[in-house]
């Protein structure tokens, strides 16, 4: 008995056993807590006669949406509105991340420029836009700028097929004929060849020290192959220009002012934070690296692109990920100006019409959580790729 008691005592003091035991107890307590909340909520809803479940997703929505990347009208179901809102959220998030990254890197590098005017301009940009609340910036672009544009009949003509007015930006839409798939195939072949050539050029550079022109060769392949295919297949792509009919334009592609205002505000606001992250990352690189590159005869542009930025990325990427996540979540402010994102059309209109609060809010939260986790996964993967490999 004494030996058994001693073994049990030793087992309890084993760090591995204790950590497993405490984690199991914590997971059980958390599971019971979540179960209690859900059970209590379902009981209250049942007592009030409120139906639960996801059956409402098959019901007819009965309302229109101003922007849809997939086919949609009032006769489609609430499930369709969910996907329309989801795609609109992904659209503004992806475009916002791309524009904010490009603008943020430019402003961040300009902040370190030896030109006094350029560096001061970058500093003023950063201190101005990052200190004004994002919601106010959205209102500024939407009400003060875009809503001040002329009516469709008095549209600003930027070219023969591009028009700007209070209802949005209208431009020609490409119309694809059956033979147009040859152009798509040519583009895929060009991209494959470009990637293959880039891999070959990297290996050659490591072997000989000479850097082949990757950018210009890749651009040439991407431009020449589809162009040749376009003419060889009989020019199967035409343009459908917008035309003023009645009180608005018909045909072509339109960018609604809500999307433009939200995209401008998100990109400009987030770029001010990215610029400071880029500046801090570049400053963290030892100045001796720059001096060594310049002493070898590298121009300043190549020194920045080939020596400084690759080392700075190891510092830039982690906080940059947080800004990407913030931009995606901040896109939910679109509801303030009527942009039909997920919060507006699903957690807003659909919730008001169906009353399925728990299901709709849960689905909306799951979407933002999934988008954030995917963004973190991609950025962490890239971060591991550029990280220093130590022995």
From TrEMBL:
InterPro entries: AA_ABC_transptr_permease_3TM, ArtM/GltK/GlnP/TcyL/YhdX-like, MetI-like, MetI-like_sf. GO terms for molecular function: transmembrane transporter activity. Residues 86-379 form the ABC transmembrane type-1 domain. This is Amino acid ABC transporter permease. GO terms for cellular component: ATP-binding cassette (ABC) transporter complex. Keywords: Amino-acid transport, Cell membrane, Membrane, Transmembrane, Transmembrane helix, Transport. The chain crosses the membrane at residues 20-38, 50-70, 82-110, 131-149, 180-201, 213-232, 252-275, 357-378. Belongs to the binding-protein-dependent transport system permease family. HisMQ subfamily. It comes from the Bacteria. The lineage of its organism: Bacteria, Pseudomonadati, Pseudomonadota, Gammaproteobacteria, Vibrionales. GO terms for biological process: amino acid transport. It is a multi-pass membrane protein. Pfam families: BPD_transp_1. Its main location: membrane. NCBIfam families: HEQRo_perm_3TM (TIGR01726). It is found in: Cell inner membrane; Cell membrane.
């Amino acid at each position: 008995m004494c030996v058994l008691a001693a073994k049990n005592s030793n087992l309890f003091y084993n760090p591995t056993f204790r950590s497993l035991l405490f984690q199991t107890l914590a997971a059980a307590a958390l599971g019971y807590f979540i179960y209690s909340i859900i059970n209590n909520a379902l009981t209250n809803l049942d007592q009030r006669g409120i139906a639960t479940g996801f059956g409402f997703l098959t019901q007819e929505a009965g309302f229109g949406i101003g922007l849809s990347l997939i086919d949609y009208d009032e006769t489609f179901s609430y499930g369709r509105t969910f996907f329309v809102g989801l795609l609109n959220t992904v659209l503004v998030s992806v475009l916002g991340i791309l524009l904010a990254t490009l603008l943020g890197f430019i402003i961040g590098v300009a902040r370190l420029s030896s030109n006094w005017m350029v560096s001061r301009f970058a500093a003023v940009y950063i201190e101005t836009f990052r200190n004004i609340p994002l919601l106010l910036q959205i209102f500024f672009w939407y009400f003060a700028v875009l809503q001040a544009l002329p009516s469709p009949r008095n549209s600003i003509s930027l070219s023969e097929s591009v028009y700007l007015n209070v209802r949005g930006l209208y431009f020609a839409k490409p119309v694809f004929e059956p033979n147009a798939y040859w152009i798509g195939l040519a583009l895929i072949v060009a991209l494959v060849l470009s990637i293959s050539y880039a891999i070959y050029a990297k290996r050659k550079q490591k072997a000989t020290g000479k850097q082949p022109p990757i950018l210009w060769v890749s651009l040439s392949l991407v431009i020449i192959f589809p162009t040749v295919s376009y003419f060889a297949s009989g020019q199967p792509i035409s343009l459908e220009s917008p035309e003023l009919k009645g009180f608005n334009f018909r045909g072509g592609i339109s960018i609604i002012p809500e999307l433009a205002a939200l995209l401008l505000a998100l990109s400009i606001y987030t770029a001010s934070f990215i610029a400071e992250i880029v500046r801090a990352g570049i400053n963290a690189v030892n100045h001796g690296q720059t001096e060594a590159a310049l002493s070898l005869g590298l121009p300043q542009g190549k020194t920045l692109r080939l020596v400084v930025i690759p080392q700075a990325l190891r510092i830039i990427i982690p906080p940059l990920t947080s800004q990407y996540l913030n931009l995606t979540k901040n896109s939910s402010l679109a509801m303030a100006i009527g942009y039909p994102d997920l919060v507006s059309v699903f957690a807003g209109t659909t919730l008001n019409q169906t009353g399925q609060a728990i299901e709709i809010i849960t689905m909306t939260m799951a979407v933002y959580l999934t988008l954030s986790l995917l963004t973190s996964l991609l950025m962490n993967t890239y971060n591991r790729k550029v990280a220093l490999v130590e022995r």
